[in-house]
User: Fold this.
Amino acid sequence: MDNSTNILSAKRVVVKVGSALLVDEEDGKLYKSWLEKFAQDVSRMKERGQEVIIVSSGAIALGKRYLAMQKMRLRLDEKQAAAAIGMIRLAHAYQEVLEKHNLTVAQILLTLSDSESRRRYINAKNTLNSLLRLGAVPLINENDTVATDEIRFGDNDRLAARVSAMVSADILVLLSNVSGLFSEDPRINPNAKKIELVKGHISEKIEAMASKTPSREGSGGMVTKLQAARISMSAGTKMVISNGNQMNPLKKLEKPDVGTWFTPTQNPKRARKNWIAGALKPMGIIKVDEGAERALRLGKSLLPAGVLSIDGNFQKGDAVVIVSMNGGELARGLIAYSSSDAQLIKGHKTHQIEAFLSYRGRDELIHRDDMVLMDSKE
Assistant:
């Protein structure tokens, strides 16, 4: 896999922006000039053909100003009220600066349950992929207006990591107010050593360092950043913690070895294939004809026309087994339709799907990106 430690080689990048980078803690005002330079960076990446997703904090901090609550420690319901006011202003601020570069912003609010429910997970994933394909810049935040203590992520570091895993991002960038992971808190010990690279896995020694180097921003800290790194690395996504307290914070990441990089042992595609092949319990069996089998072995998606029979009770996004006419296992994948809908369209051409279901769904029963051949070496 690609071992570079800069953002130039990445096709898909998720960027998490910390609250302290966006909003002045004292008066609750937005750092507009910083955001304008950040928008320049995003435009620069888009011009290179890169896809960018932004996970932004700051809604609560912005909203507090309009409720005259800057100096107060808020209860959960008060945070939700502040978020409701701040979200619209935060989204508008991003829209305003990115529009100058002819970029379209799409706001998406997520909760923890959206990443744990298979159906909502696949819907969110499909929406994000569609937005990226259409050239938009998704702007994501936790849905603080409705989330409760039991279901909320609690910080946008882990939210960004979940999103990175969801869309198989190449790199997750955590823009913080620290320059990376240090052996100790550099504010206390100026001789603390910055860790340049963490490869493969996060050891107990690295975890111990995190507890000694807190981040000062938002509700997250270095411990949650390591939790985000663990999620990202397991999904095959590289992650970097970098100091965003300067203009054009993404541009500097075009140079190698800036910040602390966390590099996994496999790429996002391979990690996703391994997850589909071994981590999910199959909920159904799809038998295909010889033509579909040949197509699958050539790396094609599974279309309804090649399906002979469907067994099992499953929902959209569930894992299923694909077998040949003689019953041998060919592949496993995440199906785009429920078992009841799949039964209606099996054996039919894709242009007939809408007539049978009364809505236009995906052309593929199982997309090749959501499938792994069991004898594949990819």
